[in-house]
Amino acid sequence: MPRTPDTTPAHSRPADPAPDVRTERIGTSLLITLDRPRARNAVNADVAVQLAHALDELADDPALRVGILTGAGGTFSAGMDLKAALAGESPEIPGRGFGGLTETVTAKPLIAAVEGWAMGGGFELALACDLIVAADDARFGLPEVKRGLIAAGGGAIRLPKRIPYHLAMELLLTGEPVSGERAGLLGIANRVVPAGETVTTALELAARLAANAPLALAAVKKIAHTADGTPEPAAFAAQRAEMAALAASADVREGMTAFAERRAPVWQGK
To answer: How large is the angle between the packed helices 250-260 and 214-227, nearest 10 degrees?
Structure first.
């Protein structure tokens, strides 16, 4: 059936709601911003769907090499939107996890740029990224035990693998937050910078990553994830398969040729 044209005057039509997740292409990076500052960027069903779409945008465009996740209004994310959850909304997407991210397999590097609070699921979104840039006055915490819950969006699984067990258990069992400065000392954050400078620093870091071969970056991520909890013989076998695929790629030849010719390589991702 033909679509009936909308004859309502433009000034009388309701405006499209502003997205809760914004994306901006900056060079070869995709800046993904959680934009619900009035709710401290808490994650509800809409945020999860929109964040999953943003990750798909990153994955599908070969011109994009790195994703950067941050939050608007001086807060990274307060985690799960409890009001939405009580109303029956789920902040999870089947197969993709909390916020559409925590169980998503991403071939391209992700950097979390954390300002302000990264609490509960917000901290878990950051842990799902490959690198973390934190403001010195940021706050990281997994307070779920204070509400009778556990950090089920990856916090209880990932944090003990990222930092010493006893330190991770202190955060998980007390539910108390730590500062960005302390997160850097613990090894949670790769860079600790003054407040307001995390996105700029993340973009600089992303440019350094993007200068490398995209196939190699994806292979590093795949091998690192495969080796996590896998016996070494199986991990080395998986690594050999990745190395064979890389050795047959045009990018490997380009990398060697560029080195011999003393010039910057021109990656093609194949």
So the answer is: 120
* pLDDT tens readout for residues 133-191: 999 999 999 999 998 889 999 999 999 999 999 999 999 999 999 999 999 999 999 99
Residue of 144, 232, 242, 254 with catalytic role: 144
**Phi (first) and psi of residue 66, to 5 degrees:** -140, 145
Q: What is the pTM of this model?
A: 0.86
Q: Which DSSP symbol is given to 11?
A: G
Our answer to whether residue 144 is catalytic in this structure is yes
pLDDT digits (tens, 9 = 90+) for 2-54: 343 444 444 444 455 789 999 999 999 999 999 999 999 999 999 999 999 99
Architecture of domain 18-210: Alpha-Beta Complex (3.90)
Return d(Cα 193, Cα 70) in angstroms, integer. 14
Confirm whether 124 is a catalytic residue: yes
Two tokens, residue 194 = 């003054």
For residue 29, CA distances in Å to 21, 81, 220 come to: 16, 28, 19
Element (H, E) at 83: helix 82-86
Backbone φ, ψ for residue 58 (5° rounding) = -60, -45
**Of 24, 89, 124, 261, which residue is the catalytic one?**
124
CB atoms within 10 A of CB 145: 14
**Token output for 35:** 């934009």
Tokens linked to 157: 């699984």
Cα 185 from chain centroid (whole Å): 21
